[in-house]
Design goal:
The structure is a homodimer. The first copy, chain A, is an alpha+beta fold. Chain A folds into 2 domains: about 140 residues, PurM-like, N-terminal domain (60s Ribosomal Protein L30, Chain: A, 2-Layer Sandwich); about 150 residues, Alpha-Beta Complex (Phosphoribosyl-aminoimidazole Synthetase, Chain A, domain 2), CATH 3.90.650.10. In chain A, about 35% of the residues lie in helices and about 25% in strands. In chain A, strands 8-10-7-11-9-12 form a 6-stranded mixed β-sheet, sandwiched between helices. In chain A, helix 3 links the parallel strand 4 and strand 5. In chain A, helix 4 packs across helix 5. The longest helix of chain A is centred in the first third of the chain and has 17 residues. The interface between A and B is large, with 75 and 75 residues. Strand 3 of chain A pairs antiparallel with strand 2 of chain B.
């Protein structure tokens, strides 16, 4: 048995000396890590900001996710929020809570995961905070640049708009289900979709440039997140039959669904955390690369209740709706 | 016994519906909470950003700190980082991890503490994230505006500069020690200094306007934080004898120090978390309101090692140096 180096074997300063050099840098950083605060360029006089937290035993378990996976996912779910406003990420700050008995290599792997997720998109980690604690918590805040464009909100969808999607549906949920069922040889594409989601961030920026009327990233499932646009905009969102609009997503899930005895439509309509970009575009706008039509925006129906339909009818499945506290 | 309403009795949406309306707002917010991200004004084309985390049983315990106290302190330690760059805070985002058996009133009290700490300084809470978890974690990211000025870094102190302080020394440490010793009728001023520090944020902004050459907020004790400026700037920082420079701080601690058998000088020189502004000013600059002279910047000595002296000699006490992981 090798001697594992643990977090409690190092001083905070020593740990930071290992961690900080691994973090990604970017030209938008005016003052980077090491002072009381960082300073970041915001060329158009505004910045986009969002924060998301990952908690051990709630969002991940160490048996399935490496430090690299957790760093990647923590960055990516934040980068997706930035992209869903139509902005390009410039910078992140990371608050990290770690137990003393965690391996140091887990922490440096986390930095590498952060770096690889951010680096491809030109975003830097410009600051952070480190604390001990009983469980791992990774709280990331991301900042984005809109390059002079208006932000794409959830509230701008209009009747007659096209509903379009960039990215995949249901794969992260399927990967999680495969890990949970401990099946032999789970589909590695699906498991990776859960552990290291890779949403089409540039498509979000392109949607902003093209003039998307509303957008969000799908973190809680297509039905639930489409419902958020519907409510914020005061419209009905009618999705096409997924068998017609997203046959590839259904096909990608079919083997795993068969093994677990699950209807793949459930994953496609209610599976979260793929972080695809769900957007609406005014009629006549050419869809940016990466987007495909999956529905249309309609007036509120007779009930005047914002809702989501599938092929004009009640959705064929309903999701549990993720809730962090429900008993 | 009354029926306490617990976090797990509410859905996430219900909890947010109680929490979000309590948060402070500000004119700098272009898009506030409720979308994938917020949008904040950054009029000079840059923003200052810092993040700090508070962890239950590490930075606070529920027996001593109310939700209000924790919200106040989480905001204030971040606001102090912003001020220590010479910037004025515009906006915060908050990631909150809470156990299901926490009282809902604790969470709404936290929002009120955040609001009261921010509100007086014109900063808004523009977004956040909420998750369950075994222990409470409050991760705050703050953003500040420099109004066109250069940021005040730790690295700009020059031999001949004046070392000055705005704010108090040692009171938070004394308050913590009184709580830890469970003494009867502890000095309420000292206890409040620990539970709800109230650093002179505007003095930080004034220091930036006046042309401070270096600055930080004292989070780990005067000696340790002065050492950070010394190292970053490559200088010696020579502090005056505290009996001459900060007699009021020593006097404010004397009763508590007597009760606990501690030299008040230890708290003054090594007590952290008062978040006073420690700054250096070029000779001839008139000190901004709130600052008093506590030392001077000198060339590196013969050893060429950046260090802190007191009245030209080794400091009379040394602190333990806070470390989150040391066994």
């Amino acid at each position: 048995m090798t001697d594992l180096e643990l977090v409690r074997d190092l001083s905070e300063e020593q740990l930071l000396a290992r961690f900080v050099p691994l973090l990604p840098t970017a030209a938008s950083t005016i003052v980077g890590p090491g002072d009381d605060a960082a300073v970041v360029s915001a060329p158009d006089g505004r910045f986009v900001v969002s924060t998301d937290v990952l908690v051990e035993d709630r969002h991940f378990i160490r048996a399935w996710s490496t430090g690299y996976d957790v760093g990647w996912r923590a960055a990516m779910q934040n980068l997706a929020d930035c992209a869903a406003m139509g902005s390009r990420a410039t910078s992140l700050v990371v608050s990290l809570v770690i137990p003393g008995d965690l391996e140091v290599s887990w922490v440096t792997d986390l930095a590498r995961g952060l770096a690889d997720a951010c680096g491809a998109h030109g975003a830097a980690v410009v600051g952070g905070d480190l604390s001990g604690g009983q469980m791992i918590v990774v709280a990331v805040t991301v900042h984005g640049d809109l390059a002079g464009r208006p932000p794409v909100l959830r509230s701008g969808a209009q009747p007659g708009d096209t509903v379009a999607l960039a990215g995949v549906l249901g794969r992260s949920a399927a990967g999680l289900a495969l890990l949970g069922a401990a099946v032999a040889d789970p589909d590695p594409t699906l498991v990776a979709a859960f552990l290291r989601p890779d949403p089409p961030l540039e498509a979000g920026v392109r949607a902003g440039v093209a003039g998307a009327s509303a957008m969000l990233d799908i973190s809680d499932g297509l039905l639930r997140d489409a419902g958020r646009i519907a409510r914020a905009s005061g419209v009905t969102i009618d999705l096409l039959d997924p068998a017609d609009s997203v046959p590839g997503d259904l096909a990608a899930l079919s083997e795993a669904a068969g093994r677990l005895g699950i209807d793949p439509l459930t994953w496609v309509l209610t599976g979260g955390e793929d972080h695809g970009m769900l957007a609406t575009f005014p009629a006549g706008v050419e869809l940016p690369a990466g987007f495909r039509v999956i529905g249309s925006v309609r007036e509120l129906g007779a009930s005047s209740t914002a809702r989501v339909t599938v092929a004009g009818a009640e959705p064929p499945v309903t999701g549990p709706g993720w809730d962090h506290f429900a008993g």
